[in-house]
Amino acid sequence: TFPQSPRWRREDVTYRILNYTPDMLQADVEEAIAKAFQLWSSVTPLRFTRLYSGQADIMISFANGFHGDFYSFDGPGGTLAHAYPPGNGIGGDAHFDEDENWTKFATSSGYNLFLVAAHELGHSLGLGHSNVLGALMYPIYMPQDIRSYRLPQDDIDGIQALYGPPRETPALPTEAYPPQETTEMTSAETPTEMSPREEPTEITPSKTPTRPKDCDPHLTFDAITTLRGETLFFKGSYVWRKSPYFSDIEHDTISSFWPSLADGFDAAYEVDKRDRVLFFKDNKYWAVSGYSIESGFPKPIQNLGFPTSVRKIDAAVYDQNTKKTYFFVGSIYWSFNENTQSMERGYPRKIAADFQGIGHKVDAALQKNGLFYFFHGSNQYEVDIKSKKLIRVLKSNSWFNC
Amino acid sequence: FPEVPDKENEDMQFAKKYLENFYDFKEEKNSLFKSKNLNHMTDKIREMQSFFGLEVTGNLDRKTMDMMKQPRCGIPDVRSYS
Known about the structure:
Chain A has helices at residues 26-41, 113-124, 153-163, 351-354, and strands at residues 12-17, 47-51, 58-63, 79-83, 94-97, 102-103, 111-112, 174-175, 223-227, 230-235, 238-242, 250-253, 267-271, 276-281, 284-289, 292-293, 299-300, 315-319, 324-329, 332-337, 342-343, 349-350, 364-368, 371-376, 379-384, 390-395.
């Protein structure tokens, strides 16, 4: 939040679109802004009413360069927009830089107005910036698929800290329809036609069961991988992110990083020298580098050399020393040579035959600091990579400083 | 010290503007102590690197400059917003 956490003192907040960008149809601008408001009303008790004249709490406008406040815009790129925290006068107002190319699509040729407006309205409601990569309130523009966009957990936590959770039925933005006052509309405001009131498509928060507590002694994981020095733990649509830069564990959803992979994984591993992480779900796999999914994916796991009898894998882990990846399926495992991109001869082999003390299915596997960690249920087994000897047994969530 | 080549100077000016806009960096124009200014700017670079999870070096390395050039929101990342 901002200093002293300014917030609107009532649940009914009004907004007004003062002018439009020539880059988009007016109806598309109105829809983008209405959907941006819906994101916030769906997770709070707030209700947003659109005014067509007079002073609204949140006045929305497009302008370029110097535009009457102390924060001039800077031409194409750089600063895209800004908005003010709740308050009188300019408080709550959102300004968009007309020198940008605004679009309703999520393309690289322009900035998606819905995404930027959702971010700026976060400020208009009292949120500051987040340093959580993938959060809506992260200061850097991140193009992403907006069709099934869901508010990341970090933003939900932030806005609910200010306004609390929604009432029983999330409030839909209403419009003062017909306009409440008859004062003269400026030409820029008069919509070309009073667009029929669109039933907003409801953007509902994720319906998946609530996230288990970090220190739940029965916590289990679907998949675990390193990623650029961090460690990501997956369960259902949830991610626990452990970073060497920050002491606390970050809570995200998969959709905030890879929207099209929101349903979760069976296995995951990183080949760090290639800055590549592979995700597995059922008999398909994807390769990602950071946020972007490599083109041509998903591919069938048979491409890696699995027989058609293998319908899914349980866990995977890359051994930086040998440049081999171990894939675990039931009580057996394969060794895949990352250099030749082929399965090694003499596999599959019994897990129990080679990994002392690991006599059962492996849910997830991790390689960290020269050791293997095999997760089975709420336990993890720390194994020396070279000798494959069991060192100790820990709780699966021992990484969360419980 | 040798005069910094133009490119570096350009980056330095860009970074200064960025840190003024988003990290409440105030260059003391008539400061007698040039080195004091540089330390202050180095601290602000560290603050920005830490916010974005970059390696905290205090230097205007490539990743830091790239991050500064990303399209973004115009609201500061630190609390000094007025």
